[in-house]
Amino acid sequence: MSATERWYLASLAGALALIAGSRTGGIRLIASAGPVRDVWMQEFRQLVPDDRTPVYVPASVSARRLTGGVSTARSLASGAIAYESGLIAEAAGRVLIVSMADRLETETAALISAELDKGTDISRTPSCVIALDESESLEEAPPAVLTERLAFAVDLDMIPLGAAAPFAITRGDIETAQHVLPTVEIDTNYVEAVVAACFSSGARSMRTPIFCLDAAKASAALNRRANVNEEDVSLACRLIIPSRADVVEPPPPGPPEDDDRHKDEVDNESSENSEERSASAEDLETLLIDAVMAEAGATLTRRRQRRADRKSKGMAGRSGDITFATDKGRPDRTSKQRTDRGRIDLIATLRNAAPMQTIRRSADKDGGMAIRRSDLRMKRYRRRKQSSVIFVVDASGSSALNRLSEAKGAATQLLSDCYSRRDLVSVVAFRGSEAEMALAPTRSLVRAKRQLSDLPAGGATPLADALALASRVADTEYERGRTPVIVMLSDGRGNMTLEGVADRVIADEQTRLLARRLAQKDMDLLFFDTSKRPNPRAQSLSTDMGAQYYFLPIADRAKVSGIVRDQIGRR
After folding, report:
1. Secondary structure of residue 497 in the 3-state scheme
2. How far is 501 from 462, CA to CA, in rounded Å?
3. Average pLDDT estimate for 468-480
4. DSSP secondary structure string, 501-534?
5. Among residues 164, 244, 168, which one has the least CA distance to residue 204?
6. What whole-number distance in Å separates Cα of residue 470 and Cα of residue 478?
7. Distance from the Cα of residue 252 to its chain's centroid
8. Of 16, 294, 393, 425, which has the fewest Cβ atoms less than 10 A away?
9. Are strands 387-394 and 95-98 parallel, antiparallel or unpaired?
10. Residue pLDDT, tens place only, 246-291
């Protein structure tokens, strides 16, 4: 499909979303901030009536601003509780545009989704929602609770600016289609074909065929037809199903038509219904499935290309778990807990004190604003913790140099890529009778290269001591407010006990015990098997640790660092 055709489909998606309204929810507009998205938004706004200007919702919007609540200013002025409407109420009958939807909190997305679920009464719900998605991968996509309720997914990232032409549809076309829509009818054969296309593509959500049928009716109304035709159904399926497809291959064929056992299992009623189906309906079903599969394959290819481009630029996604603080981060709900270092949320405090002013004024002769200690509310912020990657490297045996080279390269590459996220990297090397801290947790690339430049190799394998040291480092990092990630590079064969005695049996028992203790900790663990061939002992040890197992016999620093970056990005 050419860029011009893709832009034309994007314009049709905007028109159908306005015509169908809340029946199709809206559009997930996948595009980076830039001129192409600006042109689409400008043309889309031209289709919206002047008296129904869109309502914009920032990603950092609070729940109170979204749903409404007590108005502090009005309550203080009147001495009684006064309420104000939220952005959702202001968007009733209008377009709700969600900026940076990929950064939207799940709770906020759930509130918007709840409004879309209220029905088709435009006096209460937004006419449609436009979610601006700037994500670079599936891991960063907007919350599924919202995207599940948006029928259309329009991808503008692969469209050049030269193809972004003015929409051929006018505001008058939209208004006429909205009047025609209630009278549009659809044939049963089309309904069956849409359901078959959804099933074959793996789009099993019950919303998908309903969205397709409503979009097909909107397409017929746009062309001023009273009945849906094949072109309307094909357009609706191409616009809606590919982004929801889970597979790009058709399901395996069923049993042959001459299978007697299959015929015996079909009841009389089903046989009669099958005979009534016309050949044209079956042809339409095949046509829809082929069109959807082709578009689904193209959509998957674009997703893979975007992810590959993202990885080639060294972008590693988000880091760490969510933590709360009183000094900096993204604003969160206010807290009743009072601390010496916290900041008072003046607005929330006044809002909490407002309902009690009438009673307090009657008891206070001064008649001024009365604030009690119980009214105080503190500001609270949320931010993601730093990730602390702990490499545990087997520096013993003849293959030690390869493993050390692998760990050094991965550590330095992570530090060079992750500086903007302020993540830390450390290295625990084990050889001889004990493990040692070859590199303390740091974000300094210069320090890492200097301390890792000359590490000794060879000797016995104190694997149990390495796990014990890695566990202590991880606990320390966790206490400092960071998210530890342990990366093990070993063949899983230890022969030194915690006491420094060469006893393979006792060393194996101690290693298993420490591995099981690690599995009980809430952290990510990766195990890279560096044996020449997959080692059952290494696989068993990674299972005891609860780690993800990877077989990596040849030193490959790029692969190790890439897997670790992906793991950090998924948190």
Report:
1. coil
2. 9
3. 89
4. -B-HHHHHHHHHHHHHHHHTSSSEEEEEE-SSS-
5. 244
6. 12
7. 31
8. 294
9. unpaired
10. 644 444 444 444 444 444 444 444 444 444 444 455 666 666 666 6
Rounded CA-CA distance 378/348 in Å is 8
Give the Å distances, CA to CA, from 418 to 107, 324, 407, 413, 489. Answer: 29, 22, 16, 8, 21
* Angle subtended at Cα 218 by Cα 214 and Cα 219, rounded to the nearest 5 degrees: 115
What's the whole-number mean pLDDT along residues 209-236?
A: 91
Q: Map residue 179 onto helix, strand or coil.
A: helix
Confidence of residue 241 (pLDDT cuts 50, 70, 90): confident
Amino acid at 112: I
Closest CA to 471 of 522, 395, 539, 407: 522
**How far apart are the C-alpha atoms of 118 and 114, rounded to whole Å?**
7
Contact 432, 397 (CB under 8 A): no
Which tokens sit at 119?
């029905």
Between these two residues, 253 and 191, which has the higher pLDDT value? 191
- Model pLDDT for residues 147-168, shown as the tens digit of each residue: 899 989 888 887 888 888 899 8
Q: Which two tokens stand for residue 426?
A: 């450390």
What Cα–Cα distance (Å) separates residue 554 from each residue in 61, 399, 406, 413? 49, 10, 9, 18
| Residue 77, pLDDT above cutoff 70 | yes
| DSSP code of residue 366 | S
Q: Which token pair is 238?
A: 């191409």
* Residue 496: strand pairing partners: 502
Q: How many residues does the chain have?
A: 571
From the number of C-beta atoms within 10 Å of its C-beta (0-12, 13-18, 19+), residue 501 rates as exposed
Strands ordered across the beta sheet of 152-155: 55-57, 95-98, 128-133, 26-30, 152-155
For residue 435, give the H/E element and its range: strand 434-442
How many other C-beta atoms lie within 10 A of the C-beta of residue 358?
12
